[in-house]
Amino acid sequence: MMKRRQLLKALGMGGLASLVTLGASRRSRAADPAPPPRRVIYFVTAHGHTPNSWMMPVPGGSDSVVSERPLTPVLRDELGLMLQPLHPFRDRLLVVEGLSNTVNLANIADALRDHTDPNNHSVAVAGLLTGNRVRQQAGVPCTGGARSIDQELALRTAAPGRFGSRVYGFDYVPNLTVAPFSFLGPGQSTPIVASPDVAYQDLLGGYVPPPTGEPRDRAQVIASLRPSVLDMVGREYEFLGARLDADGKQRLDAHRALIRDLELSLGAGPSALCDPSFSATDHKVTQFMRLVRLAFACDLTRVVTFVAPVPQCPEFGYPAEAQVHPYAHQAMPGGSACGAMYNPVAEHAIQDLGVWYANHFVYLLEQLDSVIEGNGTMLDNTVVVWVPELATPHHFHNDTFTVIAGGGNLGLRTGRYVRYPRTFTSPQPNHVLLGPATNRLHVSVLRAMGQPDDSFGLTSVPDSAGGTIPLVGPLTELFS
Amino acid sequence: MRRGAVFALLLAIGCGNDRGVAVSGIGPAPLRRLSNTEYLYALNDLFPAIHPALPPLPADNSVTGFENEAQAQAPSDVRIARFEAIANLYAAAATQDTAAVAAVTGCADWATPTGAAICSRDFIRTTGARIFRRPMTSEEEAHFTQRFTSWATAVDFSAAVQLTLSAMLQTPQFLYRAEPPEALAPTTDPVVPVEAYAMASRLSFFLWESVPDDQLLRAAAAGELQTEDDIRQQATRMLADPRALRLAWDFHRQWLALDRIMNDEHAVRTSEIDPAWTTATQTSALRESRMFIERSFAEVGTLDDLLTSRRAWVNSEMARVYAVDGPPDADTWVEVALPEDRRAGILTRAAFLAGYSHRGGTSPPIRGNAINLRLLCQLPAPPPDGVDLSMPVADPGNGPKTNRMLFAERTAGGCQTCHHALNGFGFGFESYTASGAYITQQAGLPIDASGTITGTDVDGPFANAIELSTSLGRSKVVHRCAAEKWLQYALGRMPTLDEYGLVDEIGTRFIASHGDLRTLLTEIVASQTFRMRKQPAP
After folding, report:
1. Residue A10's Cα: distance from chain center in Å?
2. What are the phi and psi torsion angles at A289 (to 5°)?
3. Which candidate from A201, A225, A259 shows the least CB-CB separation from B163?
4. Contact A337/B388, CB-based, under 8 Å?
5. Which residue in A225, B35, B444, B532 could disulfide with B68, CB within 3.0 to 4.6 Å?
6. Using one digit for the tens of pLDDT, what is the confidence trace for B214-260?
7. In sequence order, what are the residues at sequence separation of 6 or more whose Cβ sits closer than 8 angstroms to the Cβ of residue B211?
8. Among residues 252-281 of chain A, which lie with CB inside 8 Å of chain B?
9. CA distance A254 to A252
């Protein structure tokens, strides 16, 4: 079986990621006989999206019950601006209206906040994928207070030689502090790999092929001893850890486990017939999208979080001196102090930014759909969740934009626009009624990934009327 | 534990005669991993002749404002992969040819089995001691000898050196600052002195952000890091070493968040603010602040100088921003004296002024916040929900207005509960644009940079940022706040409640020294909490 480095060498790529361009539409067959694995991608964008760029009417819908509308017959122009680029995939989409980042509202209502997070960006970033209380330290923007959903799934789907997850993308700096969305644990950001070249090296540059009987040069022999070095290093962690207190030992044990994972990954080649080629050209976002396809096709990971960039304004057609953040504040009339600043140019800018994101999102879907797996494609075996940091550009946390793509083989019934009623009293007084919490979206993803959980993060939060808001259970309406 | 009880305990364990601060508790000593800066400085100091191109490390978590927070140092697969890659790069570069192998092993005759055995033993012991920052234990030496022999057999002697170096650079003995209790003499005392080699590392990683030098390791071996006087003596030596400049820069960079200037928002300034602003201006502003802080620390070393000095090192970009004569290009840096009526210390430099601005204008509350939070250790209340946080814009129909006038209108009335202090500080910097340039007029109106200091021991009116900085430079509150932040940086954690007496005492000595930073740093390393540790519970 041709292993990773041999394959790269055969392709003339050596250990470098210079590489061969493959057309995005090309379909390749990952021919492993085993059933395709379940996978998940979180596609996270900054700020929020204007409702008029994605919400749509549901004929016969009601404010009190879940209602839905099929997307298959919908014409492109009937979709909001942001969803129009997704029209070719409408039968593979679940557009979900009405979800609320309820935990964020509870955190804002209850938790210590100071001037370091005046717009609640840090609260939103910390809560989006954790669904939990934030970690707060006076004078410093808050951060994630628990393991995020992607890292929870990473732990559950990791296997020897396979990365638990990959977190790719761009540093998001809402309060002049990098906000990663993904957390290994309380206060522990998951590192984001920001360079596609480095990401590629992580995936495929380290493979050490086993001896084949053919003569090897000295450098190859030294490289073949990397697992031996890591084995020895790992034993030093055990040796020293045994001499430390419980906290110290726990820290070294965690480090040691990751060294063991790395050691195993050096000996684990990609799936025999997967295509490891990668083109380090074009926009970085599209490079990352291709890397996701590659990582999944070679079964090097099953969980990816992609933090999309906040582009400079010329990238989506606006002046270089303009900024996304002020545009966001001014993008919607009414409803908040931001509403007083409404500027139609800003509204158009944020809509166009959403379209810019949507075009990249579609490219990702095309990549996944280009790999045939079983009776479908990789997209059918992958839940792709697009969630923004905030629900709306003017910093609301309710009625958040939610698009799920793929997952047709994982129990999701796609091709629908699903509207949830807003029936829950908010944790914040004098606030609007809320739909189901995004914690339940996380539970739904867990279920699609074959996990039995009924909850993720907090299980309930108090509302402002003395009651509680349940956060448990999947969104059953999303499933077949 | 009550302060008196702690003091009695310290007397009971024989520490009562120390002159160091001994009046408060000793907090936890969690296992600390090297921060990114410490790791890179350590590699640089261990291999000063080698400078391989390195992959980027994942950013350190900064949950309490500093990058060396022990509780935020959980490993990740990406970090472990980077540590391995970097270890391999250094190991390969250090053994790239025979001469390099001879240099790194200190041995030239490994051709014979006997020679190879001697060379490998000496290499493992000597290099291991440098990388582990202490002599290897016999078990550790056996581990490495066994692997070295195996690798030498599989490839050759040089390859074994390379692989051994790579392994050593990935061990917890290098990457973590373990202080195993077994290194101490058996005792039932609940609080014990830090073991000598661990003390050497505590000193070096705080004062140099790197590994101990040979002199420090020799002092540890000779039992010369036991007394308070020993520690003070070493601190005096180390603070006179150029490596202490790393500490000066990295602490102030993080304390004042000076590297905010490198965030994307500051890559651009609007044409109304500064049409010539480029990313070169951005990077120059950060470098200028570094040169200023390092020279201030090296040549004066007081908090007051940091807040009032007019000395600056400028290139063409900074000379343009400061409107002074300077070199013709961005690569040449020269010392200048900034105008007496325009600049005083780090708060009037571009990295601070522009870093705490928007690309299209200044925000007095943001700059004021920085003073409150970072120099006074005061936490302002959050703005009320729904408050308008946008930049105020003049209504053309109401005539010209300065930025100050617009913000004063925006924050009038009930907002003054908080904004009285915020604006009070922030308005003082209105003579500086969002790029840090000095102006006297705005919208055709004269700039009013006067204000009032409140909530400190130097309350009162000031005419401009010069007077504000001068007052802050002599404020006891500012000195006490700085002492607290320095102690946090030294310990890699927030001081515990039990240690706040220590903060007060160190702050008092800092003030008595007229803000001498070397005095402050020496008091910190001489303190009980730095020199002692609690025994782990059985």
Report:
1. 33
2. -60, -40
3. A225
4. yes
5. B35
6. 999 999 999 999 999 999 999 999 999 999 999 999 999 999 999 99
7. B42, B45, B46, B130, B133, B201, B204, B205
8. 252, 254-255, 258-259, 261-262
9. 5
Mean pLDDT of all residues in chain B?
90
Q: Is the pTM of this model over 0.90?
A: no
CB spacing of A229 vs B31 below 8 angstroms: no
Looking from the CA of A367 toward its CB, the CA atoms found within 13 Å total 25
A402 closest CA partner among A441, A440, A433: A441
| B-interface mutation test, from A240, A304, A332, A336, most B Cβ less than 10 A away | A240
Query: Can you read off the two tokens belonging to residue B235?
Result: 């601190």
Other Cβ atoms less than 10 A from the Cβ of B71: the count is 19
Residue B11 has a pLDDT of 33
- Write out chain A residues lying below 8 Å of B143, CB-based: 232, 235-236, 239
Closest by Cβ to A240, choosing from B74, B172, B265: B172
8 Å CB contact between A337 and B410? no
| C-beta of residue A181 within 8 angstroms of C-beta of residue A305 | yes
CB B386 within 8 Å of CB B380: no
Residues of B in contact with A310 (CB under 8 A): 264
* Region B174-192 average pLDDT: 81
> Is B178 in Cβ contact with A218 (below 8 Å)?
no
In sequence order, what are the residues at sequence separation of 6 or more whose Cβ sits closer than 8 angstroms to the Cβ of residue A268?
Answer: A160, A161, A162, A207
User: What pLDDT score was predicted for residue A111?
Assistant: 60
- Please, what sign has the CA dihedral across residues B158, B159, B160, B161? positive
Bridging pattern class, strands A371-373 and A303-307: unpaired
What is the rounded CA–CA span in Å between residue B100 and residue B50? 10
Q: Do B88 and A230 count as a contact with CB atoms less than 8 A apart?
A: no
- In chain A, which stretches have pLDDT less than 70? 1-33, 110-116, 118, 173-179, 206-211, 268-273, 334-340
> For B459-518, how does the pLDDT look when each residue is reduced to its tens digit (9 = 90+)?
999 999 999 999 999 999 999 999 999 999 999 999 998 898 999 999 999 999 999 999
What is the nearest CA distance from A236 to chain B, expressed in angstroms? 6
Helix (H, G, I), strand (E, B) or coil at A462: strand
CB contacts, 8 Å: B178 with chain A = 240, 243-244, 248
8 A C-beta contact, residue A294 and residue A276: yes
Cβ-nearest to B59 among A118, A178, A254: A178
Cα torsion for B315, B317, B320, B323, to the nearest 10°?
A: -50
Name which residue leads in pLDDT, B383 or B9.
B383
- Cβ distance B382 to A262 less than 8 Å, yes or no, reads no
Element containing residue B446 per DSSP (H, E) = strand B445-446
Residues of chain B with pLDDT > 70, as a percent, come to: 90
Given B139, B360, B388, which is nearest A340 (Cβ)? Answer: B388
ipTM, two decimals: 0.90
Candidates B32, B34, B57, B80: best to mutate against A (most CBs of A within 10 A) is: B80
Beta pairing class for A93-97 and A416-419:
parallel
Nearest to B72 among A115, A188, A325 (CB): A188
Q: How far apart are CA B480 and CA B483, in angstroms?
A: 5
DSSP assignment of B304-342: HHHHH--EEEE-HHHHHHHTS---SSSS--EEEEPPTTT
pLDDT digits (tens, 9 = 90+) for A61-89: 888 999 999 999 999 999 999 999 999 99
Name every residue whose Cβ is closer than 8 Å to that of residue A110 and which is 6 or more positions away in sequence.
A427
Whether the pLDDT of residue B3 is over 50: the answer is: no
Tell me, yes or no, if A337 comes closer than 8 A to chain B by beta carbon.
Answer: yes
